[in-house]
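Complex 281.
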Amino acid sequence: MPIVIDHLSHTYSDGASYLVALKDICFTVNEGEFLAIIGHTGCGKTTLVQHLNGLLLPGSGRVLVDGLDTADKKLRPRIRSLVGMVFQYPEYQLFADTVREDVAFGPKNMQLSEAEVALRVSEAMAMVGLSMEAFAEKSPFELSGGEKRRAALAGILAMRPKYLVLDEPMAGLDPQGRQSILSMLEELRKQTGCSIIMVSHSMEDVARHADRILVMSRGEVKYVGTPQAVFSHNEELEKLGLSLPAPCRVAAMLRARGIDAPEDVCTREDLEAFLLRRLQK
Ligand SMILES: Nc1ncnc2c1ncn2[C@@H]1O[C@H](COP(=O)(O)OP(=O)(O)OP(=O)(O)O)[C@@H](O)[C@H]1O
Ligand SMILES: [Mg+2]
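Predicted structure with magnesium ion bound:
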């Protein structure tokens, strides 16, 4: 069963003023898919993903996680065990004395046996590439930036979520750190079949890794579809202030010079394939 977002609206209010952050949003997150969420800063991406595990509740409309309504308080623990949420800069949430204890926190709260918790911890640490020998007894505060982020991610993975939500997980990392997070997410999906819902500002990364992309603008869904379909709206996306992946921009420049580069070029491989076809003509 999927996550269904059904006519979701959300308004922030402090009593004196209010702001409509989400307007009539409808989409589905399919089992096992990699869905990227993109959009200009302030368009409502974080607000939207906070609805996926009931951290925020709909002003109107519904969010159903495998048929469970997030508005039903009794269902929230089950929903939270299905939907793992990795916030921006998750390393700020590390708190325990050792990495092992930090990663164990989530599974312990799920009332699992000690043996099961230990298994989950070693499995999650292996998944993020932190060896037990080198890292389990270290203080989280002794780790490098990239290691801290991976430790924080392990804490969520140890709960074995069916849906993993990440809000800009690569923000502030160098290219190598970004690539290592992306490869890890790919591997995780292969091994566990979980869905990944990732908010990102990196067009190249989402073009390459996502099955589908959801584009938001001012609290609304503007497009949802495959990277090829979404990035074919290149002029509209630029109007929304979104930079296109470099291969899309190159293809658009070629078209502007009368070369028939297809509209749906969005990765380097697409561009290379087109250029090779052209050169062989
Ligand atoms: N707790 C809050 N109270 C009031 N307004 C808020 C709150 N959180 C966000 N907003 C407002 O809601 C709108 C959507 O914010 P949100 O953080 O969801 O955007 P975003 O797409 O995640 O932006 P960014 O790319 O900068 O992370 C913005 O106008 C923001 O100022
Ligand atoms: Mg945000």
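The radius of gyration is 20 Å.
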